[in-house]
Amino acid sequence: MSRIRIFLLPLSILLLSFQAVQAQDTVVPKLIWAVNKVDLGTVFEEQGKQLAEFEFTHTQDSLFFVEDVWTDCGCTTAEFTKDTLEVGEKGILKVSFDPTSASGYFNRMVIVKGNLQNTQDTLFVEGIAIPYPQDPEKAFPVRKEYVGFRLNKLNMGEVLTNEPKVKMLEFYNFGEETLYKDSLKYNTPEFIQISQVQEIVRSQERGLLQVSYDGKLKGDLGFFEDYLAVSWDSISVIPMPVLADVFEYFPPISKDELHLVPQLSLGTQEIDLKKISANSVQTESVTITNKGQEKLEIRKIQGNCDCLTIEIPKVELLPGESVDLKITFDPKGRKGIDQRNIYLFSNDPVNPVQLFLLKSRVE
Which segment of the chain is annotated as a signal peptide (predicted)? Predict the structure, then answer.
């Protein structure tokens, strides 16, 4: 008898636990939010308070209403639907953010409490707040026509080929004419697109140009300096250099796949030529080996100087195959410590870009 009791007790506990797990799996949230985070984007101080709207749907049979809303900062205030909602009805929560309270990236938390038990949800409002400059002349020193920019170049940074990279280019209207969004004209390569964020930028106001750089459309890898040109009806063409480092995107791979993919291995990462004469052309070689189990493809080899000549007999290596990369360096016109960078782009998903250094002291 005692043996049966010992067996039945754990079994009953397991059954209860199983039922509890099933109950947890079938729990339906009391409120379903269309989104739980709103990105306000880049907000200028002079634009005033910004509004973020959150829509929710009540899912329970019981009547529901919002009891209270808390925010983690006095810079955010909330207005919400105060009506009692039946199942399936929708409500709106409006959160107002004051950009004068922040500088740079912000992330504000909003907690919503309802009348039903365990109804307490968390929402977020984020963006980038830029304060108004005390001295626009100093803040926007690069003047082209009547438009001021903070820098004379737009650096996009790293751009991957899986999706376009977007950056905001801030400008200041020093002129007397209003700059309208629909009057903006631009001339760019097909992989660069531009649009004005604000509908209008009045005299002595700031504006934003949204610049999108599509690495896939670029169709090349490495460092590039391209050019864009913008104009408005009242302003002639304004040129602007655009810098970008374009890299091929590879999706993450599992540890089990590491030994299967192509693997580019350099015989050495660096060659030091020591002391050399400025009139003596130097030639070196580096061995490249594919240590993976799939074909290795050398996409591109890029040096950081016209003084380099790089040759490779083939750009596709079978598993286990090696090839010598020939590097010729002409130090003419150079003096002192010198370092040349050579970048190898390949379909090695773990190390798609590898750097090789050629050092010397030119006398």
Answer: 1-23
Q: What pLDDT was estimated at residue 2?
A: 38
Place of tokens 């791979």: 253
pLDDT at residue 61, as a whole number: 74
DSSP string, 266-312: ES-SEEEEEEE-TT--EEEEEEEEE-SSS-EEEEEEEESSTTEEEE-
Tokens standing for 183? 């009057």
pTM: 0.75
- Which has more pLDDT, 64 or 158? 158
**Cα distances (angstroms) measured from residue 282 to each of 53, 310, 329:** 65, 12, 5
pLDDT of residue 28: 53
3-state helix, strand, coil in the chain (%, to 5): 10, 55, 35
Structural domains of the chain sorted by starting position, each given as residue range(s) with its CATH number in brackets = 31-130 (2.60.40.10), 136-247 (2.60.40.10), 255-362 (2.60.40.10)
Tokens in use for 291? 């240590």
Q: Please, are residues 243 and 154 in contact by the beta-carbon 8 Å criterion?
A: yes
Return the sign of the alpha-carbon dihedral for residues 83, 84, 89, 94: positive
Angle at 38 between CA 73 and CA 168, to 5 degrees: 100
